[in-house]
Amino acid sequence: QVQLVESGGGLVQAGGSLRLSCAASGSFVSIDVMGWYRQAPGKQRELVATITTGGTSNFAESVKGRFTISRDRAKNTVNLQMNSLKFEDTAVYYCYARVYTSIFRTYWGQGTQVTVSS
Length: 118
What we know:
mainly beta, 7-stranded mixed beta sheet
C-alpha cells in the first residue's frame, strides 16, 4: 500500500504565494511520475503540473510562468510552488503519483484546500 500525504494548503490573497508538499510512503519499488491535480467546485479534476523521474515537468497552460514543481527522489516528495495566485486557482489540490510495485498503479492524496481571496 502507498500513502500520499499533502500539506501546505490554506487561504491567501490574490497575488500571494503558497507552497504545497506531498510525501509518499509505503511499500513500492519506485515512483515514475509525481504531480498535482486540482478540482474546483462544480468542475472536473484537472492537471496542474507533473514531473517525471528524469525531471521533465509539464504544466497546465493556466499556471505556466506562475507555478513551479520540484521533486526529491531520495525522499519521495514533490513540491508545488504557487506564485501570483489568482482567484481562479481556488480548488482542492490533490497529490498524484504513478508508482511501480509489481505493476504501475496510480495513487492520490486526500487533497488540500487552496483558497485565493480576490
